[in-house]
Amino acid sequence: MKPSTKDFYQRVYEVVAKIPEGKVTSYGVIAGYLGVESGARMVGYALNNYDPEQLGYHIPAHRVLNRLGQLTGRAFFEDDSMRERLEQEGVEFTSEYTVNFNKHFWNPFDEL
DNA sequence: GCCTTGACGTTAG
DNA sequence: ACTAACGCCAAGG
Hints:
- Helices cover 41% and strands 8% of the residues.
- By secondary structure, the protein is mainly α.
- It is globular.
- It binds a DNA duplex (13 and 13 nucleotides) through residues 5, 26-28, 31, 36-49, 61, 64-67, 71-76.
């Protein structure tokens, strides 16, 4: 059965929804987990396009960062709500918009 | 249907 | 170690 882009988005949402509180992961890792190694940008695109109403549930998109642990998607959140949420969950920051990836990194495969 | 853009990542210089 | 360029694939103009 041919996986459509819609299914890909759906899978992205499902994976992101499983990220535990206080943990973070990256776009590339999610893409790789879904079998699309070079689809990191699409993950970001999926999150940008995601609609809680249509999806039926809401996902912690603020826990998805780039491979360096930087909050590259902060512009899509209200003010600094992305950083504030992470701090509130106990995530340690190494700089203004960079988290301690080594300490809080979450791998989708660990879930198995 | 071609061109540009982008919540990314890797490689080359 | 730092910066520039390219590859990637879907969406919108």
